[in-house]
Amino acid sequence: MSSKDTTFIYCDGSSRGNPGPAAIGVSFQDNDGIEFFFLSEKIGNATNNVAEWQALYRGMEEAIKQNLQKIKFRLDSELVVKQMIGEYKVKNKDLLVFKNKCDSLRVSIPNFEIQYIPREQNTRADQLANLAQDSKT
């Protein structure tokens, strides 16, 4: 992948019970929509919003590890997107921890964008979160 190429990182968190058993799914895709990396992880008990933030955080962490330069994060959580861009205040202390962690990672990503997308456009990340939810380990 050349440094001019954009990486699209689809993130999703899920919680069964809210709070309840939670998991994240993150899919790294190139300009052609080809997935080249993914995460599918259980995160213990959490609310759905915490799971959504955790998915973004893990996606950012991994993007930095892979030294990706131009990234567009896509989430179907309007709350997380609007809190990340500062349109909404973060009042919940658990979410504020993630907002601060994500803000500190953001400085290491030269070209950072984040966008809300409808759930139908986030099927792969949702699938990865559900795979983790359903796994026995």
TrEMBL record:
Top-rank taxon: Bacteria
Pfam families cross-referenced by the UniProt entry: RVT_3 (PF13456)
Span of domain RNase H type-1: 3-134
Gene3D superfamilies xrefs: Ribonuclease H-like superfamily/Ribonuclease H
InterPro entries from the UniProt entry: RNaseH-like_sf, RNaseH_domain, RNaseH_sf
Signal peptide: none
This protein's name: Ribonuclease HI family protein
Species this chain originates from: Leptospira montravelensis
